[in-house]
Every structure is written in structure tokens, then in C-alpha cells.
Amino acid sequence: MRRALLLAAAAILLPGCGSGDDAPAGEPIGVENGVVGETPAGADAAVYFDIVGGAGDALVGASSPLAAATSLHTMEPVEGGGIMYPTDRIDLEGDVTTLAPIDKHVMLEGLADDLVEGDTVTVTLNFEDHVDIDVEVDVVPLADLAELLPDE
Fold it and tell me: Mind listing the pLDDT tens digit for each residue in 122-148?
């Protein structure tokens, strides 16, 4: 009798469990052009990339095995740079949402190792409605990040 009850409960509950191959909600999301600048261990580094698709969803978190913590930021441009603010979400709007200097980005905090040009860093992006995405981000010289700055 007890075995029959357990099997009945499993038959009811298991279809609601994810099998690992569930399709993400809404339109597909891709990530392109991921970069982070060379940075010494112990410091923080901003990660920039383009999120393609996913309009109506939101980036709500990130993680990386190389960082003690991660956070999402927005920036308000001011003369000579910007003021950075933490945020709990970055809304995805339109076909492409760009995370760039003096704008939205993911911050890797307390790096465990040096980020050296030519290396890659794995960053897991967490979305409100879509499945998490693991992204390989290229480590580039800091001078290369200047090319991403908005034209004045």
C-alpha cells in the first residue's frame, strides 16, 4: 500500500520537474562579443557583451568561478566618465541589449586570479524567465575597451 502511494505521488509530481531539456521561455537568447579587460587578482573587473533576443526578459544575476562575488550595474554618464549604481536587473529591450563602458555591465568582484590577455573567463548569466547561459568572455588589453566607449 505504501509503495503504491509513493508511486502515485511520483506520477503526479515528476511531470512538473524539469528534465534539463525544457525550452527557455519566450524567444531564444544569445550572447555575443563578450570581453573583460586585463585585471590583477583581488581587483574588480567589468564584463561587457551584447545580449541578442529575449525582449521582455531581464538579466537578474551572474556568477563566475573566478570572482568572489558578482553584481549588475548601470551607469549615469557625467562629464569625464560616469557614476556607477548597483541594480537588481537589466531589462532586455529590442533585438540587442548592449552592456558597454559608461553603461550597463556585470562586475566581477574580488578576482581569484589575474585576468591575462588571451585567456577566457566563464560567466553564468541568470535571467528572470530564461534558462541560465554560460558564456566564455575574452580577456583583452584595457586599451581595447576604449574602443567600446560611446562617441562624445
Answer: 999 999 999 999 999 999 999 999 888
Neighbours of 81 (CB within 10 A): 11
CA dihedral 115, 53, 105, 64 (to 10 degrees): -40
**How is residue 14 annotated by DSSP?**
G
Are 139 and 38 in contact by the 8 Å Cβ rule? The answer is yes
pLDDT tens-digit readout, 68-111? 999 999 998 888 888 999 999 999 998 999 999 989 999 999 99
Q: How is residue 59 written as a grid cell?
A: 538579466
The answer for residues whose C-beta is within 8 angstroms of residue 139's C-beta and 6 or more apart is 35, 36, 37, 38, 115, 116, 117, 118, 119, 120, 121
> What is the chain's alpha carbon radius of gyration, rounded to the nearest angstrom?
19
Q: Which of 46, 51, 129 is nearest to 86 (CA)?
A: 46
Q: Do the Cβ atoms of 51 and 96 come closer than 8 Å?
A: yes
Q: Which residues, including other chains, have CB under 8 Å from residue 117's CB and lie 6 or more apart?
A: 38, 139, 140, 141
- Whole-model pTM: value is 0.80
Select the more confidently predicted residue: 12 or 110: 110
